[in-house]
UniProtKB/TrEMBL annotation:
The keyword Transmembrane helix applies. The chain crosses the membrane at residues 47-72, 104-126, 146-163. This is Diguanylate cyclase. Keywords: Membrane, Transmembrane, Transmembrane helix.
Length: 182
């Protein structure tokens, strides 16, 4: 419950706050579509394990996938900040929001690992169970209302804002130079 009703909404809120920072900094005039595309990549890197947790039986395979996605996301986040700081001012507030966007996925994966400890331990050859690398739908799905709420929230608070950001940055890049200086 804590994961579903506290960590996930906080994570979504941090994503919106980060988008607002990008909007306020005028990302379309500075780092442009490349940084925005990196943000979309990070959404995919975290969206895939979220979908796995929502719909698949969490076992050693799903846990390994989530852990791998977390580390790939961390590498992309480092690339994002390295690129952004060369092209625009990343304020202390935005940096603090980035801390949330890095730690909340770690907390989520950690909590899921705790909920499925025998399979997490089995990943490392420990514990009483053998690692299960099968791919199956959840036997006991999450409440449909929660899944629908979460999917709607992801669309409204993540996909639409970051899609708008990408469109805005591409539009600015494609705008003729003369209209930029006029």
């Amino acid at each position: 419950m804590y994961l579903m009703y506290f960590i996930v909404p906080l994570w979504l809120a941090a994503g919106v706050a980060d988008w607002l920072c990008h909007r306020r900094s005028g990302i379309e005039h500075t780092s442009g579509p490349k940084e925005s595309a990196i943000h979309l990549l990070m959404l995919v890197e975290m969206g895939a394990p979220v979908l796995a947790a929502l719909f698949l039986d969490v076992n050693a395979l799903v846990l390994a996938f989530m852990i791998a996605c977390f580390f790939v996301h961390e590498a992309t986040a480092l690339w994002d900040v390295s690129y952004a700081t060369q092209h625009r001012t990343v304020t202390p507030l935005e940096q603090h929001i980035h801390s949330f966007l890095e730690m909340l996925p770690l907390m989520a994966v950690s909590m899921i690992a705790l909920l499925h400890w025998p399979q997490f331990a089995a990943l490392f050859g420990a514990g009483p169970e053998a690692a299960d690398f099968g791919l199956r739908w959840k036997e006991s799905p999450l409440p449909r209302s929660y899944v629908l709420w979460l999917m709607a929230a992801i669309v409204v608070f993540e996909l639409l804002p970051y899609g708008e950001e990408f469109a805005r940055t591409v539009r600015e890049k494609l705008r003729p130079r003369l209209s930029r200086t006029a």
